[in-house]
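Notes from hallway chat w/ T.B., transcribed later so I don't forget. T.B. wanted the structure written out for a chain they're using in a teaching module, and asked if we could keep both sequence and C-alpha cells in one place. Agreed to drop them here.
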Amino acid sequence: MNSETAAYKRLVIVSNRLPFVLEKCGDGWTAIPGSGGLVTALAPVLRNRGGIWIGWPGISESADISELVEKASKDAGFSMTPVMLNKDEVLNYYVGFSNEVIWPLFHDFQSYCNFDPRYWEIYQKINSRFASVIAENASPEDFIWVHDYHHICVATELRKLNVSSRLGFFLHIPFPPLDLFVKLPWRYELLRAMLDYDLIGFQTLRDRRNFTQCLGAFVKNIRTKGTGRLLSVEFEGRTRLVGAFPVSIDYREFSQMARTREVADRGWFIHEDIPDRKIVLGVDRLDYTKGIIYRLKAFARLLEKHPEIHRMITLVQVVVPSRRNIPIYENLKVEIERLVGEINGRFTKSGWVPIHYIFRSLSRTELLAYYRSSEIAIVTPLKDGMNLVAKEYCASSIEQTGALILSEFAGSAHQLQTGAFIVNPYHIDEVADAIYTAFKMNQEELKVRMKKMQKSITRQDIYWWVDSFLNAAISGKLKDFPFLEELSHDTEPKSE
C-alpha cells in the first residue's frame, strides 16, 4: 500500500441481506448461497481478504443461527455478522419504507408509494441498529462501504456513535429526477443523511446529476464543484465526493464457467427440449420494474406480424420469486401467468409452444446453460439501476453470436449501446421489430456486435468497479486489501 492507504485494514460491506438465504429444514434452518445482483458483484472481491459482511439473515423469528453463520462465513471466505429483525420491523422497514416508498418512487412508480409515517420511524430505528452492529465490529482503520437504499441513514447514525472510519455509500437503484423526488415527505432528511458519507456513488451520470439537482433545490449553502466522473460537494465545512461508478460482473468467472462441460451438458438438454428453434431468453426477478408484461405483449406482437417464424422461435421467460408478501407482486405474478396462458392459447401449434414459463430460481449452472443456449436475450426493464443480466449474458456468449435486446432505461444501456439493440420497453412494436431483426441477422454481424460488448465489459469488470470506488474513497485499490497470508497469491483475480 502507499502511504495514503496503509491505514486501511479491512473492507466492511453493509447491505440489507447477508449473502445467503436461510430456508426451513425440519425444526432448523439451512443456509443457501445468495444469487442476487449485489452478491454476484461483491462476494468475489471480498472473498479471502479478511473482510466483514454485515446484514440481515432473512428471518424474522428468534433462532440461534450462529453455527450457520459461522459455516457460511467459512464457505464464503469472509466473516458475516447478522443484524436481527422481528416481524414488525421487517414489515415497516423492509416491506414498508424500503419497498413501498423508496423502491417505487426511485423507479418512477410514485402511484405505488405508501407514505406511512410509521415506515419512516422504523426505517430510522433499523438504520440505527445496523450502525450499532457496525460500530461493534469495525475498527477506525477499516473502510466501511454501505450499500443501497435500505441504509441511507446509516452514516448519520454512525457519526452519532463517534465512528471516525471512512464511509462510502453506493446506490444500486436509480436516483430520481427532481420532479419525482420532491414528492417524498422526508426528502430533506434523506439528502442530509447521504451527506454524512465521505463518498456517494451512483450507477450513471444521470443518477448523479439528479442527486446534485435535488441537493441544490433542498439543501441551503451547498456548493458543488468539478467536472467529469467525480464531483466535490462542500457543506457545513466538510467536503465529500459524489461520483458515477457503473457496477459490473466478474467477466472472467462467467466466461470460464460457461465453457465447462457441466454447462455444455445442461445446454444440450435445453436444445433437446426446444429443438431446431432460436431461443429468446428473459431472466428477471418478479418485479413491476422489469417490464415483463410489456415484453410478453411485444412477443405476441412479433408472432402476429410474422407468422412465417412460428415454430422457429421460442421465448423462455424465467421469473425468480421475490417479495411475494407484498400484494402488488403477487398480483403481478397472476397477471404474468394469465398473459402467458393467453398467448400460448392463441399461437400454440402441434409440437410448438411459443412461451416456456419458469417460475423459480435457477442454479448457476442452469442459468449459464440458458445463457449459452439462447440466441437472443431480451432485457427490457422499465427502469433499472444497471441490470447485470445483460452483462452476464454477454460474458457467457462463447460463440459470440448472441444478440442482446436492451431497454434504454437500464443503466447498462450506455455502456452496451454499441452492440445491443436499444429499445423503448413501452414501445411494443419497436421491441417486436428488434426481436425480428435479431432473429434474421447473420452471424458475422452478430459477432461484431457481441465482441464490442464483451470488450467493454472486460475492460470495466467488477474489479474495475471496486478499484474505481476505492480509489475515489481512499486513494486505494482492491489489491490494498490483499488475500490472507496463508492463501496463494497466484489465485488473486487481476484488475483491468
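Follow-up for T.B.: The domain at 251-459 is CATH 3.40.50.2000 (Rossmann fold). Might be a good example for the class.
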